[in-house]
Write a sequence for this structure.
């Protein structure tokens, strides 16, 4: 059985109602899934180009 996620630690809901995974969740997972997650601690290493560069550029200008 998969480990249960804890609201506020592993995820939270943003203003638009989306479930957002936290950086801690990604660290526990241990790898970049390639989906371009908002709190990816792995520099989006599995996200294909050109999406990876677009995400990194947007984060650097935010």
């Amino acid at each position: 059985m998969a480990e249960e996620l804890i609201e506020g630690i592993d995820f939270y809901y943003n203003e638009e109602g989306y479930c957002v995974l936290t950086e801690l969740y990604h660290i526990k997972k241990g790898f970049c899934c390639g989906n371009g997650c908002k709190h990816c601690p792995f520099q989006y290493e599995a996200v294909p180009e050109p999406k990876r560069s677009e995400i990194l550029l947007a984060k650097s200008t935010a």
User: Anything to note?
Assistant: The chain has a mean pLDDT of 92. Residues 51-61 form the longest helix (11 residues).
